[in-house]
Input
Amino acid sequence: MLPIHSQDALGQANDSALSPSAPHQIGMASPRKPRTADVESAAIPAEELDHAFPGLNLPLQPPYPPAEAKSVKELPREAGWLYEPKWDGFRCLAFRQGDEVVLQSKAGQPLGRYFPEVVAALRALPARKFVLDGEVVIRQGAGLDFDALLQRIHPAASRIQRLSQETPATYMVFDLLVDAKGRSLADRPLSARRMALQELATSNIQDKADRQRSKKATLHLTSKRAGQRITLSPASSDFATAEKWMREGAASGWDGVVAKRLNCEYMSGERTGMVKIKRIRTADCVVGGFRWARGARSSSGEASDSKANSKTADSRKRPTDEVGSLLLGLYNKNGELDHIGFSASFTREERRKLKSILKPLMGGAGFSGKAPGGPSRWTRDARDTEWFPLKPKLVGEFQYDHFSGGRFRHGTKFLRWRPEKKPEQCTMEQIRPAKMAG
Output
C-alpha cells in the first residue's frame, strides 16, 4: 500500500504528518449570525423538482444516492482523516457521457435546468466521461449567497438564464466516482479517489496559473480567471488547517468542516466514514402543520391599539389571517413524522406570505407519529393549542439552541427552504450527534 501523505488546500502532497491522539474539540470563533433567506424563495416541495433522468452509459447511473456525513460534536484528530470545508450550497453529483451532462441533487432530482452555466462548463472540459461529487455555490463578495441559489429554483427558463449571467454559480468538486476512462472508483478508498481527482483537475480544470496558486493556497480557494465555474475544493489532512477553517471559514461562507476517512470507500446513501461539525446548530425539518396568529399583534409582540381596552384580551384570542407559527417534524426510526417543535420568528409581512405558501398543502395528514399537544394547565386558552395539519411535503432549515426529550426546547429560527431535500430525508439522526468521531 502506498504511504498516505497529508495534502494542502488543493490536494497537493506534502511531507507533514499527524501524530495519533484522541479526538479534539475544535476551537471556534463566535459564529457569524446566519442570514435568513426570503420566505418566498424556493418555497416548494421537493417533488416539484422531480423529472426523469436520461440513460447514460456509465457504471453509476442517476439518481445515485451521495454519501452523507454524521453530525458530531468533535472532529477526530488522529491520523487517517481528510478535512474539507463544509460548503453552504446545493450538494450535487455531476454525470458526463460525451455531450450529455446531468446534475443531480442530494435528493435525486435533476438540477441541470437551474444551473445552465455549470452544465456548459462541465461540457467544455476535455474529459468526455466522469462522475463527480461536489457542491454548487454562488459567490457574493468574499462569501457565499445561498439565497441567490434559492432564486434559481424557478419555473421560468428566461429568469434562470438571466440569473445564470448575473449571479453565476460555481461547482466545488471534492470527489471522483467515475474516472475519464469510465471506470468506477466508488469501491476504492478516498486516498485513491482524491489522487485521481487531483490528476483529473490538473489536466482538465487547472491551468498553469492555477497550479502556481495552489502551492500558496491555504484558506481561500478561488480561481481568479474570469468565468471559472469548476473549482477543486480544498482538502487537508493537517488538523491545524482544519482548526483555521473553523475559526476563519465563516468569512468565506463555510458552514463548518467535514472529516472523511482516507481508507473508506464511497458509502453511497450512508453516514459511514464521514463526519461534520457545524458552526451553528441547524436541522432540516418537515412542516407538518401550523397555527394561526391570535390577536392584533405587531411582529415585535406588542399589542396594537384597540378601540376599547376591555376588548384587547378578547382580540388577542381571535385567529387572524396571518400564520402564527410553523409546526416542525422529523421522521423517527419507524418512518413516522414526529412533532418536535415550532418556529414563529417571522415578521408580519412574512406571516402573510406564509399563508399563500401553505394554502396548497392544507388538509393533509400532518404528523403520523407524535402530534402537537392539547390543552394543559399551562395553556391560557384552549384555542391556543388549535393547529391545522399540512401535507408533509415542505422542507426548511431551522436554527435551534437545544434539543432534548425528543423536541426543541425553545422556538427555532427559520433560515431557508430546502427544495432539494425530500421530506423522508429529514430524520432524527441529524440532531442526535455521536459523542465522538473516532
